[in-house]
UniProtKB/TrEMBL annotation:
The lineage of its organism: Eukaryota, Metazoa, Ecdysozoa, Arthropoda, Hexapoda. Pfam families: LCAT. It comes from the Eukaryota. It comes from Oryctes borbonicus. This is Uncharacterized protein. One of its GO terms (molecular function) is O-acyltransferase activity. GO terms for biological process: lipid metabolic process. InterPro entries: AB_hydrolase_fold, LACT/PDAT_acylTrfase.
Length: 215
């Protein structure tokens, strides 16, 4: 959420203010276009990678956060007919995502999704120099598959590329600003670095340290 929140904040400021006070924006694992993992959380929750936590118990708190709706896959990066959840009776895409919220028995999620949709679709460049750092080549859920049954069963998660939490297409979203602002956009993709370990990755720490020393 930090990346999109920073973008939202910067879009509220005048260019003169940004020119005066912001040297650059450094983002780690920015979910610029959301993540399929958010879709998964609405169904079965997330154990946050800890064997001590139960995803289905955690789900009760997780789905109550409007920020989760903000992290739903964006139409800017997923086709509206691209299957996100497959069942024996219905496939769910962005075009019928309201049905998904209803069928997982959380219609409030649809209301939160509508409230945050304008933010998730916003591709306005931040107007500052950006250093976009993220991990790649880590198995990341791309699609959710249910065998005949219901949403109360554990689904099969079909994986693709990303940082283990955010899909690669979303992580690379910052590059779209290159043609929308005069300030440079720098990308640093780190193979096999996941969404959380990036915080302590030595290459990232050195990169940021060099930026600070140059200020």
């Amino acid at each position: 959420m930090g990346g999109p929140m920073a973008q939202y904040f910067l879009n509220l400021q005048t260019q003169s203010w940004k020119d005066k006070y912001i040297k650059c924006l450094v983002t780690l694992s920015g979910a610029w276009g959301g993540s399929v993992k958010a879709v998964k959380v609405y169904a079965i929750g997330d154990d946050l990678g800890s064997y001590m936590l139960n995803g289905k118990v955690m789900k009760l708190e997780q789905i109550s956060n409007p920020s989760l709706a903000w992290l739903m896959p964006s139409k800017n990066y997923w086709k509206t007919d691209e299957v996100l959840v497959q069942t024996d009776s219905k496939n769910y895409t962005l075009s019928n995502i309201k049905d998904y919220f209803i069928d997982v028995e959380y219609p409030e999620g649809w209301e939160m999704y509508q409230d945050t949709l304008l933010h998730s679709l916003n591709l306005t460049a931040p107007g500052v120099e950006v250093h976009c750092i993220y991990g790649t080549n880590v198995s990341t859920v791309e699609q959710i598959f249910y065998k005949p049954g219901s949403f109360y069963d554990n689904p099969t998660l079909l994986n693709g590329d990303g940082d283990g939490t955010v899909n690669r297409r979303s992580l690379e979203g910052c590059r779209s600003w290159s043609s929308k602002q005069k300030q440079p956009i720098h990308e640093l993709a780190l193979p096999k670095v996941d969404h959380m370990s990036i915080l302590k990755d030595i290459n990232v720490l050195k990169y940021i340290s060099n930026l600070v020393n140059d200020v």
